[in-house]
Amino acid sequence: MNKRCDWPKNDPLMIEYHDKEWGVPLHDDNMLFEFLVLDAFQAGLSWQIVLRKRNNFRKVFDNFDPKKIAKYDEKKINMLLQDSGIIRNKLKIISTVTNAKAFLKVRKEFGSFDKYIWQFTGGKTIINKCKKLKDLPTRSPESDAMSKDMKKRGFAFCGTTICYAFMQAAGMVNDHLVHCFRYRGSGYTLHGVNDAERWAPEALISAF
Fold first, then answer.
1. CB within 8 A of 115, min separation 6: which ones?
2. Which of 60, 106, 127, 141 has the most C-beta neighbours closer than 10 Å?
3. Does any domain span residue 32?
């Protein structure tokens, strides 16, 4: 049996997320925006709560399409506030609209959000060597810089802790514990795995 990080515990959904997504270098703009949204909603809550509502988020937020979300008006926001399938926090919902607008501006300036966001790690995954869950960082100089720049560009809910969680999810940092079967040390990059394949365990295994 594969050893993994401790945080998924025995939750099947968390285990699947850990095994197939968390820490995989991500370069698809729409998926990067999805994690930007979800990590903002996680603020003050557990990732488990967000993950259980993820499909509902995807449905009511137009599959995380930033162009559509940027056009949400007060009527749409009020509709979202009535939807029990998501986290009904008005500030976070409004920030999602704000972030969609900022996201589109960044993409226009840099050609892609991917090009913008990965500059903070020099285009490479930072490899940590944590042995215990308590050793995992909650921020870094890179997340500090990312947070500062994103705030200047008009993003909301982008404090350094949220930015670091985003970096972990998007594979900008490898924070799998060293005993975890997903930890691979230096050279942790999935070459030749597209975004449709990244959900498949066999694609992840064959890429290493």
1. none
2. 106
3. yes
Number of folded domains that form the chain: 1
Whole domain around residue 62: which residue ranges?
12-207
Is 3 inside any structural domain? no
Whole-number Å distance between alpha carbons of 180 and 102: 36
Find the mean pLDDT for residues 86-93: 97
**pTM, to two decimals:** 0.86
* Residue 86 domain-assigned (yes or no): yes
pLDDT at 81 over 60: yes
Q: Is 104 exposed, middle or buried (0-12, 13-18, 19+ CB in 10 A)?
A: middle
Q: Look at the chain and count its residues.
A: 208
pLDDT for residue 64 is more than 60: yes
Answer whether residue 188 shows pLDDT above 60. Answer: no
Number of other CB atoms surrounding residue 24 within 10 Å: 22
Q: How far apart are CA 37 and CA 66, in angstroms?
A: 10
Rounded Cα–Cα distance for residues 123 and 92 (Å): 29
Question: Is residue 169 situated within a structural domain?
Answer: yes
Kindly report the CATH number assigned to the domain that includes residue 80: 1.10.340.30
Rounded to whole angstroms, the Cα distance separating 104 from 42 reads 22
